[in-house]
Amino acid sequence: DGGITQSPKYLFRKEGQNVTLSCEQNLNHDAMYWYRQDPGQGLRLIYYSQIVNDFQKGDIAEGYSVSREKKESFPLTVTSAQKNPTAFYLCASSIDGARSGTAYNEQFFGPGTRLTVL
Amino acid sequence: AQSVAQPEDQVNVAEGNPLTVKCTYSVSGNPYLFWYVQYPNRGLQFLLKYITGDNLVKGSYGFEAEFNKSQTSFHLKKPSALVSDSALYFCAVRRHSSASKIIFGSGTRLSIRP
User: Fold this and answer.
1) Count of CB contacts below 8 A, A vs B?
2) What is the pLDDT of residues B46-90, one digit of tens each?
3) Contact between residue B38 and residue B106 where contact means Cβ atoms under 8 Å apart
């Protein structure tokens, strides 16, 4: 998990609330990703960013929003529009991005945030 | 479209025996292939990857994987399993394009009994 941090480790949300999950990296990576992990379904891509000030929707972006104002930071907001937000959320980063043009470098993952809706 | 299949939800192996975790993929063109490991309530850790060249790739903790283009497979192997290898393993594939997304398999839980 070195080099990429996520906070908080556990997060509880009441229905109707927006919550923001933090992701910070000190690896100087251009690309950052948010995944959702549910039991038996592997990782599903929510949003990704290949360079600062730019991001794209992944496969399950509805009910989520992101920003990429700084290279080191890629916060994820889970909005009240997300109907089933209880899950384990993983942030990742990679050298591969818009500037490198490469696709063969591995991703580095944070330790995750477990979100529970009360 | 890209896809990755890990046909076994769980693999059980006795300590000291060889282990194999299976992965098959579908991608247009040549793939980049990855294996990651996840311990409980933790993020994923990179194990190894195939980019090009030698079909046998060696990675962390004594793991290796063999790329088989004709069978579109990238099975993870280890000659002698340890109890500490017990974890969730993910295979992933990506096309040769920085604009492509990485696709993860559904994961295989490896259980090593003493």
Assistant:
1) 67
2) 999 999 989 999 999 999 999 999 999 999 999 999 999 999 999
3) no
